[in-house]
Specification:
- Strands 6-7-8-3-9-10 form a 6-stranded mixed beta sheet, with helices on both faces. The protein has a 5-stranded antiparallel beta sheet with strand order 13-17-14-15-16, with no helix packed on it. It has a 4-stranded antiparallel beta sheet with strand order 2-1-4-5, with helices on one face.
- It folds into 2 domains: 157 residues, Rossmann fold (3-Layer(aba) Sandwich); 90 residues, Nucleic acid-binding proteins (OB fold (Dihydrolipoamide Acetyltransferase, E2P)).
- It is globular.
- It is of the alpha+beta class.
- The two termini are 28 Å apart.
- The longest helix is centred in the middle third of the chain and has 18 residues.
- The structure holds adenosine-5'-diphosphate and magnesium ion.
- The site of adenosine-5'-diphosphate has 12 residues, from strand 2 and helix 1.
């Protein structure tokens, strides 16, 4: 992979100048991101995601390290000269300006010819499907529409790099899920390289070509969504990305890879390693699937997820039933730490 954006050993310490001990918000982060990628920084609140993004944008200066975009040293450029744009969670739309004027704002400041500004704004409106709303003010739009205006405004200046900080954080769950796919379509259609920050693992999995999982300022694992889910290197990643059962301290099995039934099927030889008996302690019905909590003899609880392919299965398990859980050896992952 040829790196378009190259982040090398970037550190950010806060508070060092105040005389007190410095707090390290970003700790020796190195990443290589290719042109056209949608790359997600994923981690819980306070792990340093926004600080890293703000250093790319130029709103914070790294304590040490280097950041290069397309071969150019970004740290030598003030924020407004960097060929990138950042979209904030709050969108920061101008309330007194129309949708059209909001999108045109950055282009006017760049002093582009009028005809070119108009053409660019029209194209952006079309891209985010807001042409009929061009003359509305932000408060006359739904949350999802405001989000699309903010996106159109960020893309209007045709940045080489788009930075999105919790881009869908202001939307409710259902709208967020719909918007994720739509946003990816838009980003791919313009081909912009994108670094997005999110604390929502589903959002990162749905949208990103690759994900860097962060914890306490560090990158713990980088990979494609499937890679992180199927081959988590550490217990932290296994836990953070989806649900997992950790057995014997370092063997992990995802709940949907376990089968569950009242009787062990014939082909499953009794005494094989990957089977265990327990008592159904809890059942949570989610429509398309059900999650069972199986209490094992050793006290551990095994989470098992089963897809609901039948409407009224004859032999459905109930609370307090004895049941067998089993899985194939290839369903297991051995965690290194
Ligand atoms: N300007 C600042 N001064 C001091 N500490 C800061 C500053 N900005 C962020 N931090 C601290 O750095 C850590 C990482 O913050 P942030 O990057 O915003 O996390 P995230 O975006 O992952 O939630 C937090 O502990 C936060 O309190
Ligand atoms: Mg943040």
């Amino acid at each position: 992979m040829t790196a378009f954006l190259s982040i090398q050993e970037v550190v950010k310490d806060f508070g060092a100048s105040a005389g007190g001990a410095a707090f390290r918000a970003v700790d020796r982060v190195s990443l290589e991101i290719a042109q056209g990628e949608i790359f997600a920084l994923l981690g819980s609140s306070g792990c340093g995601k926004s600080t890293l993004l703000r250093m790319l944008a130029g709103f914070e200066t790294p304590t040490s390290g280097s950041i290069r975009l397309n071969g150019q040293d970004l740290l030598k450029l003030p924020p407004h000269e960097r060929p990138l744009n950042m979209m904030f969670q709050s969108y920061a739309l101008f309330p007194h300006l129309s949708v059209w004027e909001n999108i045109a704002f950055g282009l006017k400041r760049e002093r582009l010819p009028k005809a070119q500004i108009a053409a660019r704004v029209e194209a952006m409106l079309k891209l985010v499907q807001l042409s009929p709303f061009a003359q509305r003010k932000p408060h006359q739009l739904s949350g999802g529409q405001q989000q699309r205006v903010a996106l159109a405004r960020s893309l209007a200046r045709q940045p080489s790099l788009l930075l999105l900080d919790e881009p869908l954080g202001a939307l409710d769950k259902k709208l967020r899920e719909e918007t994720q796919i739509e946003l990816v379509h838009i980003l791919k259609s313009v081909g912009v390289t994108c670094v997005m920050v999110t604390h929502d693992q589903e959002e990162a999995m749905t949208m990103a070509s690759r994900i860097a999982v962060m914890s306490e300022g560090r990158i713990v694992q980088v990979g494609e969504p499937r890679d992180l889910y199927e081959n988590p290197a550490t217990r932290f990643v296994a836990d953070f990305i989806g649900n997992v059962n950790v057995l014997d301290g370092n063997v992990a099995v995802r709940p949907e890879k376990i089968r569950l039934s009242r009787h062990l099927p014939q082909e499953q030889t009794l005494g094989a390693i990957n089977q265990v008996q327990g008592r159904v302690r809890d059942i949570a019905y989610f429509g398309s699937y059900t999650v069972y909590h199986l209490q094992l003899a050793n006290g551990q609880t095994l989470k098992v997820s089963q897809s609901n392919t039948e409407r009224h299965p004859d032999d459905a398990l109930r609370q307090d039933d004895q049941a067998w859980a089993w899985w194939s050896p290839s369903a297991q992952v051995v965690l290194t730490q």
